[in-house]
């Protein structure tokens, strides 16, 4: 196609100028079109599946809404008052707090330890990284069922009880015993198993961003490898990652649902907020007014805690 | 084509790319509206058959799903699609009933909230001729303000089955009081076998029977809490005593409604429904006896919760009349299907007296005993007892049974919730 090529070589050709202009114009329109084609589905999804339900929840929370999503009886703030004085809702927040006390520090320390170990491995590094990351790909429901039915079931052929049996220890009904509260062991271990790999990867990324010159300088200054270097170089340098891990971890803990629902069900001694809200609004009770009010209270609490965390640990300043 | 060639319009490739993107988006959004379990075309127009969606929970016995499909297919006047629901049926049903995309016909348990929220239609017209053929309790549990809202499909008595051989070996008689039950459970417990299985939650399912065996009830005739006296507190305390005796099986892979625990020899007794009798007989043969939930003491009598499932027609159905006709056909007219459903998979008592009288499989052995106990001691649900009250009652049981909380204090807490519900419902 030589003829058009020649034509393009001539800048004065009026047709060409027009063409360029048109093409540039079309290019911008085309970019916008492609932008919306790529972004559109997500925006539409976000609007329909996130923002609309949030707005709808807000509306529902001011109505008495049993068995209906289009209620007519306005009750003002009564649902909020009810939820804030509902001992079940308050105790579900307590349950969450206990859970967070276990899971957040444990995940943090273990993920960091794993990351340090895997990062120092000289051979088969990719293998170790993948092996520890793999459980992240497993679904919470599947893992919970394995924990419930085979590892921590209460009869003599459960894995945990078989192992205890070797030492002559009596069977323990892991998920049904409230005194002592053995159910926390399956609940905490299943989440650790599932999420450690993910946070380990975050820490590894953080570790690899630390400049080796810092360590070299430290050694030159006489720092001893081990705790001293970790305490004064590695940990401060991991600050951004650490804050991110803490925040993500705490939010994830607030959103705990799957393992509780599948391991212990809707029981009032181990019921995090989401399981409780699910049971009153989406189970057979279908009390969408109180459920929505509770969900919004929970959302506000999560926001406040996240902001406080930011204030304390300084996520914004962590870019250094 | 070189990039600079002016383009009169979209090229074929561009057009394909762009429309492809839009089509993918459309397909994505359309897929979200997806599978509602009903055929794609709705409405009943002209001479064509209407479409009806019928929802079931998942029955545990093999063959039940095929049977449900068989009945649906045999119905001549509509295309009936069966939705078989594993998992949390109550939750799925509750959200299904919010919109017109839910079931036309469904099984469930009646409560006043369904009428207040206008979810079910009265079925008096199809029940009129056969009312007298149902047990009064099964009618009452589905009746509100004189209107019948559901057709009982099956009656499921819940009792305690036990291994005769194990009781004989231990030299104990079938328990007659709650104290007997507790001591029997203790004596039957060895290092391999636990005394009794009452569910992995430690016995919440026996809360109702314990209450009725103390002479109480969920709600009194004039809709006041009926679980608040000292005897009820005493009965709940006994359930804790049983739990704390370390003779109940906990953490089994299956729950109380499944006979695996007693069949595998993990326990000597199990609280379960009559539906499990065929399964237990297959595994244990004649080594099976039955008792009702025993009485609290000499002043009271035993209790058998007469549960079951009921068929309803959704108010939101586009074809209410066709749905009612189908319900009449399947659960009132087709007695051979009702017999099949009650007797050929799990065992259930047919709700029709005429059918129950000639149910040969229920006239011998442990099944006959269970039927007799149900006649003597059976109680059915009160429709004014809503799921919210049920949850408050379950919380009471959990706190008393598992945590050993003071029954009177827990009763007071539950009473508060129940009273709030009652004043919401009855003003």
TrEMBL record, chain A:
InterPro entries: ABC_transporter_permease, MetI-like, MetI-like_sf. Pfam families: BPD_transp_1. One of its GO terms (biological process) is transmembrane transport. Residues 1-23 are annotated as: Disordered. One of its GO terms (cellular component) is plasma membrane. Residues 1-14 have a biased composition (Low complexity). It is found in: Cell membrane. The keyword Heme does not apply. It is a multi-pass membrane protein. Residues 93-309 form the ABC transmembrane type-1 domain. Keywords: Cell membrane, Membrane, Transmembrane, Transmembrane helix, Transport. The chain crosses the membrane at residues 32-56, 93-119, 126-147, 183-205, 238-257, 288-308. Belongs to the binding-protein-dependent transport system permease family. This is Sugar ABC transporter permease. It comes from Kribbella soli.
Automatic annotation (TrEMBL), chain B:
Keywords: Cell membrane, Lipoprotein, Membrane, Palmitate, Signal. It comes from Kribbella soli. PANTHER family: ARABINOSE-BINDING PROTEIN-RELATED, POLYGALACTURONAN_RHAMNOGALACTURONAN-BINDING PROTEIN YTCQ. This is Sugar ABC transporter substrate-binding protein.
